[in-house]
Amino acid sequence: MTAIPEFTDPRLVAVYDALNQYPRKTQPEFYAQLARDVDARLIVDLGCGTGLITRALAAAGHGVIGVDPNRLMLDVARRGRHGDHVRWIEGGAHDIGVTGADLAIMTGHVAQFFVRDDEWSSALAALRAALRTGGRLAFETRNPGAREWEHWTRERARTVVDPTAGPIETWTDVHDVRAGVVSCTNHYVFAASGEELVSPVQLRFHTRDELAASLAAAGFELDHLYGDWDRRPAGPTTPELIVVATTSR
Fold first, then answer.
1. CA 83, 86, 92, 98: dihedral to nearest 10 degrees?
2. Of residues 97, 107, 121, 119, the one with CA closest to residue 28
3. Which helix H or strand E contains 28, and what residues bound it?
4. Which residues have a Cβ under 8 Å from the Cβ of 92 and sit 6 or more positions away?
5. If you average pLDDT over residues 98-107, what whole number do you get?
6. SS3 content of the chain, % helix, strand, coil (to 5)
7. Assign residue 204 a region: left if phi > 0, alpha if psi is -120 to 50, beta otherwise?
């Protein structure tokens, strides 16, 4: 068993897309529709990973900047279909380097990787600086009221099949839940070799009040707070808190 930081090992990066497939009518469709709704000419995708959504937005005719600190992920993104239609930046929120964007997004629950309040507020401030007046910010975070982490157990392991690596069994063990932060370990067992890779992870579960306060402090007005990808209103136990906010005028 080999312990590594999440998705810094080439073996995990190579199978990332297989491990993180989006169900139909969820994130890719939601963000594509939002980009059309706001007629976004320039989109910033912070934490773009392998660029599944980033490249799809570029293919639809939007100008897109994909930003991620993980060079291995960006290498995959660049090689992907329509990867040459995206400007890729290796770095974090403060490396975006543009202003006047119409839309900024964080997908794949990237918002939850900002564990500390100062990290989160700094990222929001950088995204505000990248957007034009009246520009939109959209992202999702798992609703703490749904307590999804209680279902992250070995008994709920799933198996995905990567076209090259073959079957991979994966599950999550939760070790601690404290002050909105879930500490856990993700497991990946490759059937072909029997090798197991494990990655410790911390995720911040922001409450709706925390989201509203942090957005206001960064210069955003909350337009919509959805509870799932069908755009139903957020409720106490809806699975998601999906934010669409506008820069304050």
1. 170
2. 107
3. helix 27-37
4. 46, 67, 69, 123, 126
5. 97
6. 35, 35, 30
7. beta
Domain boundaries, the chain: 7-143+205-247, 146-203
How many Cβ atoms sit within 10 Å of the Cβ of residue 54?
31
The topology under which CATH files domain 7-143+205-247 is Rossmann fold (3.40.50)
Mean pLDDT of the chain: 95
Global model pTM greater than 0.90: yes
Exposure of 97 in the CB half-sphere (CA atoms within 13 A): 10
The DSSP symbol for 75 reads H
**pLDDT average, residue stretch 73-97:** 95
- Which tokens sit at 135? 């520009």
